[in-house]
Amino acid sequence: MSTIGEFISYIQALGPAKFLRVFWFFVIFEFFRYFLLDLVGLILHRVSLWVNRKKWKRASEQLKKENPLVSIIVPGKNEGKHIFKLVKSLSEQTYQNYELIIIDDGSDDNTPIICKSLLKNGLIDQFYRNDVRGGKASAANLGLRFTKGKFIIHLDADCSYDNDAVEKIILPFYYDKDIGGVGGNVMVRNYKESLVTTLQAVEYFNSVGIGRIVTSQFGIYRIISGAFGAFRADVMDKIQGWDIGPGLDGDITVKIRKSGYKIHFAPEAVCLTSVPNTFKKLAKQRYRWDKSLIRFRLRKHKDVLFPNQGFSLINFISFFENILYNLILNFKWYFYAIDLVINFPDLLVHIMLTNLFLYTTMGYIKLILFGWFRTRSNAPNYYFLPYIPLMVIYFGYFLRFVRTRAYFMELFFKASYNDPWNPLKTSVHAKEKGL
């Protein structure tokens, strides 16, 4: 009998009990969390928008009536080639009552010359420079000192924005006075550049964006992207801005939560960013991101997981969900793989093919079904169709191995303090202070 025939026979012979025994990891964790729970969250999100449509309308009217000053800060190093495009993108915004503050963190390109020229011609409002690189948190905090707005927006210089993005990201503050921070919807701009950028586009499109809508709906949204995030100025003053280190986006989100404020995701506030175009560059980026889970969730902010004077159930759930699905189940998968090797050695090929079929089918259903809940897309759905089967390898193996290495190195060696993304002197200081 051919391999295909054997595989078909294997599928036909699977009963419910045997299927659950072999594919329990997919059924209990992957399918439940990343399909059923996401679908419920998306439906609730749509229902909430409809039920609260008058409240959102009043919020929009109040925003337009008050027309508050918004301070946009853009910290970065060697971003000279992106600054003018950013300034032009912001000049086309529907919301125009903003001040634009650029902070140069020790650049050795032509950033100072470009920014001084823009300042002289009135295209930016303020420009500051760290002669010696202090890191992104240092640069952002420098800009924060000189802001005058009621709301602070943190941007990355190499991104571009829909022309109503600023308006959409500050609107939730008028919808709910308890919201302290709002995350924008980051999408992949260079999705056609290479295979790895396309796979990331599928990830952002099918998982990241959807996941943030769902977690925001359930009140457990956990990371305001540094590429596009908005904050109440009084809240930023209360938490004293950003702390040092890779992963500062997730860190400041937790600080806002611990101060008693809500975090909201604004799916209509769209930001386009260019993602790493090789697997090596992507691994380096994700390695840095993944280390931050250990550094900030299990060390710096571990008090969220234990009863204390400021204990919050919703913050506990947010942390627990993050640690369970990203850390614990990441390692649990290896035990699942070992279980299959030990107990089903003769069926491994069939099991792998079935898993490929299950994950691919779920990917296609999510791409099509969840499309009804998306308000904006940077590419037509059909463009991603051929790449869905590859996402099994991308998610299931490549990103899993990167995460595993990151977790191991951070758990046992605190590798984030040696990350060149942050200057050594600031990392040493952060380690001493336990940041």
UniProtKB/TrEMBL annotation:
CDD domains: CESA_like (cd06423). GO terms for molecular function: glycosyltransferase activity. The keyword Chloroplast does not apply. Keywords: Glycosyltransferase, Membrane, Transferase, Transmembrane, Transmembrane helix. InterPro entries: Glyco_trans_2-like (IPR001173), Nucleotide-diphossugar_trans (IPR029044). The chain crosses the membrane at residues 22-44, 304-325, 356-375, 381-399. Belongs to the glycosyltransferase 2 family. This is Glycosyltransferase 2-like domain-containing protein. It comes from Brumimicrobium oceani. The lineage of its organism: Bacteria, Pseudomonadati, Bacteroidota, Flavobacteriia, Flavobacteriales.
